Amino acid sequence: MGIVPLAKALELAQEYDLDLVEVAANARPPVCKLMDYGKFKYESAMKAREARKNQAHTVIKEMKLRPKIDPHDYDTKKGHVVRFLKQGDKVKITIMFRGREQSRPELGYRLLQRLAEDVQDLGFVESNPKQDGRNMIMVLGPHKKKTEAMAEARQAQEARKADAKANPGKSQNAAEAEAPSEAPSEEPAEA
């Protein structure tokens, strides 16, 4: 409607049985709209709720290692780190030194560098390895944000549900087809 004096704006609001709602108070002149205030409050609350729903909290997961870790244990721990990074979480890797191991920090440094190289497609080194008393710490950050990872997980879950609805009992039929059929043998069993 353009620039209208306040008295006329209030009169128009009464005439249409609406409320005069100030939308942008900092603008010169202030921007107002004629609308139902209850509906406006409800819609703004729903927008805020949706924004909170899509907002992700930054979580730092921690993985503790030893300098002389067994290769299988290393693979297991690396699998956990990969899972955390895929979920969009940061991972704090701590290497704990005991006794004489403290005089060999290069072992821990090499182990952290190896882990960083193994997961470089999922994450990046956010803070380089540094000695902190008996521990050496490094933080890995994911390439994907938490919201992106959550959206991908939701899409994958929906796809699995849709596939299950489209092909009910598919997994049972596949298992039956793979299992060999047992025909009764005609030879008598020896006792």
Question: How does this structure look, described?
Answer:
This protein is α+β, with helices and mostly antiparallel strands. The chain is built from 6 helices and 6 strands. A 4-stranded mixed sheet has the order 3-4-6-5, with helices on one face. Strand 5 (123-132) and strand 6 (135-142) form a beta hairpin. The longest helix is centred in the last third of the chain and has 21 residues, at 146-166. The chain is elongated, with a radius of gyration of 31 Å. The mean pLDDT is 84.
Termini separation comes to 102 Å
Helix content: 40-55%
For the biggest sheet, the summary is: 4 strands, mixed
List the total number of helices.
6
Q: What percentage of the residues does DSSP assign to strands (E)?
A: 15-25%
Strand numbers in spatial order across the main sheet: 3-4-6-5
User: pLDDT under 50 segments (min length 5)?
Assistant: none
Write down the secondary-structure element order.
HEEHEHEHEEHH
- Note the overall shape: elongated
Topology, number of strands: 6
The secondary-structure class comes to: alpha+beta
Q: Whole-number average pLDDT?
A: 84
Radius of gyration: 31 Å
